[in-house]
Amino acid sequence: MSEATTYPLSRRIMEMEESATIRMAQLARDLKAKGHDVIDLSLGEPDFDTPVHIKEAAKKALDEGYTKYTPVPGLMELREAIRDKFKRDNGLDYGVNQIVVSNGAKQSVANVCLSLLDEGDEVIIFSPYWVSYAEIAKMTGATVVPVYAGIELDYKVTAQQVEKAITPRTRLIIFSSPCNPTGSVYTYDELTSIAEVVAKYEHLYVVADEIYEYINFTDKHVSFGTIPQVKDRTITVNGFSKGFAMTGWRLGYIGAPAWIAAACTKMQGQFTSGPLL
Ligand SMILES: Cc1ncc(COP(=O)(O)O)c(C=O)c1O
Asked: pLDDT of 249-258, one tens digit each?
């Protein structure tokens, strides 16, 4: 008797791949526990610890009673600080009603996909990509369309490639810059060319995952949402995991058009509610 017959799990979960990164990380832990000397390149775990002032602030906050349910899109003080950060570091103008803090940027991406995608929609993912994008997008019933750029393009997808991959069903583009796994960083000109293509298609939105913003050894970081043609089509994803070595804290966020932020808040309100800090 097949496992599916014994335990009637949903088609959704049966068709979903386990996170390859998490599987690799577990394998590395298991091998380490057996005494093997393992260099683990699986999880994007920074090689420094959460800065002391952050830990101290968190301890103080707990002592002051910050232990209860928070507003679903995150504490107002935190959203105000994120609004200021977006402005200062990225030149992005988001109001607090456009910001949603989630339990990791992974949840941010899931909120957006669940809010925007329907069965049969297509999602262009710039490849090579962080493996979770595809599984999260597939969970909605959408079809993943990877668009690959190899070493000859410095692993950066061109505007022409994007244009070629767009069909009447394309609803979302997902990419990261700086990119996990390649480390490539898109320049302003490269992003502008892509933005010009996106702007031509009215119902096309873009998840610009900028979580590696501060782990950038190449070019100046540019936020896709600063390009005027796509300001209202961009969901900027960021978080604390990589830049501040806070992977275990589970804190990510988006800046997005207000109606997308509201949809993500509604989604999150039924799944997890807001994160603590
Ligand atoms: C490109 C990219 N986006 C998002 C995430 C998720 O980050 P978080 O820890 O905030 O869920 C990761 C984690 O590895 C990542 O590599």
From this structure: 999 999 999 9
